[in-house]
Amino acid sequence: MIKINGKMVNKDIKKLNLSNNQLTHLPVEIGQLKQLTTLNLYNNNLTHLPVEIGQLTQLTGLYLFSNKLTHLPVEIGQLTQLTELELDKNLLTHLPVEIGQLTQLTRLNLSNNQLTHLPVEIGQLTQLTTLRLSNNKITQISVEIGKLTQLKILDLSYNQLTHLPVEIGQLTQLIKLNVSWNQLTHLPVEIGQLIQLTKLYLNSNKLTHLPVEIGQLTQLTTLQLYNNKFTQLSVEICKLTQLNELYLSNNHLTHLPVEIEHLTLLTELYLFDNNLTHLPVEIGQLTQLTELNVSCNNLTHLPVEIGKLTHLIRLELDNNQLTHLPVEIGKLTQLTKLYLDNNQLTQLPLEIGQLTNLTRLDLQNNPIENKLNPIIQRVIQRIENININGNTIYNDSQNIHSSSIQQSITDSIY
Length: 414
Description:
By secondary structure, this protein is mostly beta strands. The protein is 5% helix and 15% strand. It is built from two helices and 20 strands.
């Protein structure tokens, strides 16, 4: 028996949990627990590890996240049985080259540190399936990344990368790649070799175009491209027919290609804050859409084909230049939320009365002339939350704000 953190611990113990104890240091006696396979030290105040940590050669899981570690002892390299090493949310500025000796690692989490680079020895961790490096200060990924051919998840988001090495194309087992929130201006054509990818996050970079090889990623279900500098949507994206979610907001798109009709499995399409002046009639082919957001564009009208999107639950059209709505809007009977505020609408089609599932309808800042029509009034009364001319009306009588419009609606109903 030895004393660890004020408690007597059997030397033959295999799992030890010292997490959430406000520990500032780990006693050197920890090295005597040579049978340990799992050591939990997360959520403490550790600033360093004793060199004796290297004596725990049977460890397979070491969990050190949410501490204040600034460095790792070189003896970390002696833990050659480790399969999981969690070091996120520390203050690490570099990794010892001995990290490359942990060749059994399958999961390595280094997110939320202060790393500026990775040692080339990282390429020796050929059993890795998950590598998380988000929220660091990494400016460049070395070519050795291409040796990690078993990787399935690679997260490089929230760093300072300006480019990706062509060797990224060797990671053909990847199913999730996150390089969002960097400074990327282009992607290597080798990105097209990642044919197992199902989720690709490229948002919040400086991309102006995508390589045509992006069209080879035919297993993609999620593609995030928002907050970049695209002026047009590559038709190659329209070859990604397994897509369920496509995020294109905060770019400079002026139109959508007609080929978008091929993305028939889309359930979510986000296009807000672009420069779109119209939607192609082919939008009506996206019949599985449940969410469509085209707010903050320059739309003046909607195609009648919008009425084919009968699975829509949420439709955001606010902050455009719409002067009217097609009567086909009444076919969207699954809608629960409809945002029309800040347009130029003068009339609401009476077919809006068919939207019996609406719980929210935003209309403020429109010059609507027929809002006192009994059909429109009944819609408004039924809705839980509606904004008209800057006034919010709730079904809850205790929260009703005074306005002449509201009083007219109430009088007509009762």
